[in-house]
Fold this sequence. Notes:
With 158 residues, the protein is mainly alpha-helical. It is built from 7 helices and 2 strands. A two-stranded antiparallel ribbon has the order 1-2.
Amino acid sequence: MSDYGWNEDMGMPITGKIKADLKTAMLAKDNTTRNTLRMVISEYPKLTVPITLESGKKSSRVKTLEEITSEDVQDIIRGLVKSEKITLEAKGEATSDYIQLLEKYLPQTASEEEIVAWIKENIDFSQFKNNMQAMGTIMKHFGKNADGSLVKKILSSM
């Protein structure tokens, strides 16, 4: 399972890496990985592009493989991870192989130390009525690479 995963430094699109990893998993008879990657690929048809038909009606069409961006695929994976975490929470479990594999295809999330360091360098709390108002600025900087609940916890402890 160690060769699976993707990052932007690889020089290949995430869709290509997932396809290559799927092939590797199938040859290695790694059913867990194969099924997980097939689940990601099965979500591709949900990615659509808005179009206007000749009649003027608004509609949409499925994106072609060339049109699918890394961000699109990462959003799919984040959604799958989120729903799996909800399922695990209901079961009372912490994590699963499924989540660990999916997270190998996502960019590294910012650690608590990185977030705290950035806040100390860049946020002037005197501009805000309370610390929580800085949340928007912080999340804008980190984007999807920071967990909102972690940022909230950090801000409430400051």
